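User: I'm new to structure prediction. If I give you an amino acid sequence, what do you actually give back? Let's try with this one:
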Amino acid sequence: MKLIGSLTSPYVRKARIVLAEKKIEYEFVLDNPWTPDTGVARLNPLNKVPVLVLDDDSTLFDSRVIVEYLDSVTPNNRLLPAAGRERIRIKRWEALADGVLDAAVAVVLESRRPEGQRNPSWIPRQREKIDLSLQMMSEELGEQPWCSGNAFSLADIAVGTVLGYLDFRLPDLGWRERHANLARLYEELMQRPSFAETVPQE
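Assistant: Good question. You get back a string of structure tokens that encode the predicted 3D arrangement of the chain. For your 202 residues, that looks like this:
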């Protein structure tokens, strides 16, 4: 298998963490869809990363599709229950985390536009989504060791990916000061090689 992506994409990081946790061998091919010479669009018409190229050269895209597939490939270190309410609870965490990522990426992209071309209401709206979502995450995590139940799961990977991206691109948010339990969770996650070795970088 090949994973196509960049070192800055949080969605790519989520896939890399799952690959590491599942101990699946793969080739990591660096490609940034924002560069003129990118080949991503040939693999994913949406021109987004990550893209997973399977052994038969078929492709999967969208991080949620990719990580669900990867969890089904091998029975070890299951990150999602096979079915039922607990599975949906974890997928809900993932959906919330990905929504925060979408808002955070939107803030970063809008901030890069020339000042006169920025929509003055866009960044505050996205930041509000981030703030409200982090508050919900914090309330639902409470004093639990992990996001869903008493075991590490895809929910923790999704939330940890978000928190790492906020550190990387929006350090002024100060989420640690407002959500000590999320900070504790992230510090715990960073003890895992899958997280420590995939910290986003330019």
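You can read the tokens as a compact description of the fold. Here is one thing that stands out. The longest strand covers residues 2-5.
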